[in-house]
Amino acid sequence: MKRGFIGERNVKNSPTSPRTKNVNKRYTIDEALDVFIQSKEAEGLRPRSIENYREHTRHLMRYIDRDPFCIDELTSKLIREYISYLSKDRIAYEEFGNRARESKGLSPYTINLRLRSLKTMCAFWYEEGMLSSNPAEKVKKVKSDEVDEVPGLTDIEVERILNYYDERQFAQWRDKTLCLLLLDTGLRIEEAVSLTIDRINLRYCEINVPPNKAKNRKGREVPVSREVAKRLIKLQDESRLYFGECDEVFMNAYGDPYTAEAFRRRLNRMKKDLDIPRLHPHMFRHTFCRNYILNGGDLFTLQKIVDHADINTTRKYIQMDEEHIRQQHNKYSPIRKYLRNRKN
C-alpha cells in the first residue's frame, strides 16, 4: 500500500497569538486517508471502524467526482453542500442497483455518521500539519426530530422470525441459535459470531467476552440462559461432527467461521420473505435492552451487560412504542393503589 508521509513544517506556539502551521506538501485524498488509517491502525482501532472511514470517504469522493482531489480543496462550503446533497438528493443504496430505494435523502442518523468520520479525519489532518485549517470544525451535525437509534423488534416480529426457521437444516438451526443468543444476552454481532466453546461457562451460565473481542477493550462476563447455553454447546458438537475439531461455535456450511456479514445477508433475505420493514443484527441488541427494562431489570446492570461506556448510550437503546408504554402504565400506575383502598 502506498503510504503518505507528513512533510516538515514549522509550528509556532505563542500565548498571545493562535498556532500557525506551514504546510509544505499537498496531499491527495488517498494519500491523506492512508496516513490517517496508518495512525488509527497503530492505535489499535477495530478493522470494522477502519473500513467505515474508507467507506465514508468513498461516498464523499463519489459526490466530488474529481480525481485527483487534494484535501486542501476541502472547504466548509463544500462540506455543507455535500450534507445538503445527502439530505435531499442522495438515494439510499443507489450504488447497489436492485437495493436502491425510490425516495431521495438519507436519514439524519446516517448523514451524521458520515459527517462525524469526516470531522475526525479533518481534525487529524489539521493537527498533523497536513492542513493549514480545519474545514469541518464549524460544520454542525444535522438536527432531527427522529430518534437517533433504530428501534428493536416487536414481540410479534420476534415470534415470526423464530418460527421462520426450519431446524432440520443446519444453517437455519444455526441462525435461529444465533438469534436466541442475541435476544438473550444483548451481545454485539461480532462478539456473538466469534464465540468459542471454551468461553461458555455452563455451570454459572455465563459467556466470557475477552478484551480483544469487546468494542470498549474491556473483558466481561455476560449472563446467558441455561437453555441457550445448552443449545450453543449442542451446535458446537454438531459442527465438530461435520467439520472435525474446531473451537468456534458458529460455522458456515463449508466449515469456516461464520461471519457477521453473512448473517446480515441472510437476515436481509428473511426480511423480504416476512415483509418486515427493517431487520439487521443490531436490532436484536436493542430488543434485549428494551425487554430487559420492561421485565424489571435496572439500567445500571444493563449498562454493564451490554458494555456501554456511557449510560446515556444505554438510555438511547431503550425505545418503547405506544403499546409498551400503555402496558407499563397499566401495570405501574399509582392510581390503582388509591382505587383499591377506596374499595376496601
UniProtKB/TrEMBL annotation:
Residues 1-24 are annotated as: Disordered. Residues 1-11 have a biased composition (Basic and acidic residues). PROSITE patterns: CB (PS51900), TYR_RECOMBINASE (PS51898). Residues 148-330 form the Tyr recombinase domain. Keywords: DNA recombination, DNA-binding. The keyword DNA-binding applies. Gene3D superfamilies: 1.10.150.130, Intergrase catalytic core. Residues 12-21 have a biased composition (Polar residues). Residues 27-126 form the Core-binding (CB) domain. It holds the Pfam family Phage_integrase. Belongs to the 'phage' integrase family. This is Tyrosine-type recombinase/integrase. It comes from Niallia oryzisoli.
